[in-house]
Amino acid sequence: MGINSDPNINPPIEPSLTAASIIGSWFDPSRNGEGFHIEQITDGSAVFLWYSYDLDGSKKWFIGSGGVVTENSDHINIIFDQVYITSGGIFGMGFDPNDVIPTVWGSAEFNFQCFNGTFNYLALDAAYGEGTYQIEPITRPINNAFRCE
User: Fold this and answer.
1) Distance CA 25, CA 22 (A)
2) Mind listing the pLDDT tens digit for each residue in 49-97?
3) Which of 6, 17, 24, 113 is the most exposed place for a label (fewest CB within 10 A)?
4) DSSP secondary structure string, 89-104?
């Protein structure tokens, strides 16, 4: 089973750089083992997950929602005023959503072109500091009607 190539069912889409065209997974090749998943949601804002590590080297997910999307002809900018981390939850049958505590960790900004971009972060905790990653896509949905080239 695959994508139907009949142009009457799946008409060709004119490639353009939009927030919808950059959704998927991105990473910085110099930081293999970390990465991001970016989505634009139906209200036009964006969400992301940053798969990384905490200061002790344990796996940590950083979460941003309500990202403000600005589309230009040559790049997409997404600003997340608040990036969160969570604590308190446990795996399995003992999970209780009331135990999960979201905490504002900092802020983040993405600037995307079709095949590269930057990720900037600013943590509230000086131990995490601030930084910039040079990112590129790993995956994009195969059935995404929006394409940039």
Assistant:
1) 9
2) 999 999 999 999 999 999 999 988 788 899 999 999 999 989 999 999 9
3) 6
4) --SGGG--GGG-EEEE
